[in-house]
User: What shape does this take?
Amino acid sequence: MKHPMAKAASLVLALAPLASGALVAGTAGAASPHVTVTMQLITNTTGKLGGQPKITNSNWTVKKGETVTVRIINHDDGTAPLTGNYMKYVKVMGTKSGKELVSGKAVKTVSDINIAHTFTVPGLGFNMPIPAAPTGKTNVIIATFVAKKTGTFLWRCFAPCGSGSDGMAGAMSTMTWMEGHIKVVA
Ligand SMILES: [Cu+2]
Assistant: This one.
């Protein structure tokens, strides 16, 4: 299926050649580089894990010290409340403002019963709880951070949104579905 963002993405990629492999919109600030990474949280998936949720554009690269805005367009109206040690991920962590925007509203936390997924990078102390979208609609979750160290960091979702008795199999244990890598380069 043709990605609705494809046209816009190729345009901005042409403007932001530094941020390879990502849907990145560069702004031309000379002093402080700033990129935007856009991911989509989709549920109309096919194949072996068909029907399970997936975060698109799951591997991307940014530069140490640049300001990165992560923008997640969430199409998933289902919830998967956090459990056990993962309950801490109801909180927004590691963002510049200590908050994230949920469809324009700044929040520090998302109520557990409304959580659909998380976008969590433990190695960077960064966490975005993703509330379920209104039925049949999308919500957009936006947060900004600065990567302060180089390396390759695993991100993952900590909401039990996959298959199996605990919801942690299937998409939840499959790279590029509910986990991926962020590379921070010098
Ligand atoms: Cu998830």
Observations:
- Residues 53, 117, 157, 159, 161, 178 surround copper (II) ion (CB under 6 Å).
- Helices lie at 6-15.
- Residues 6-185 form a domain with the Immunoglobulin-like fold (CATH 2.60.40.420).
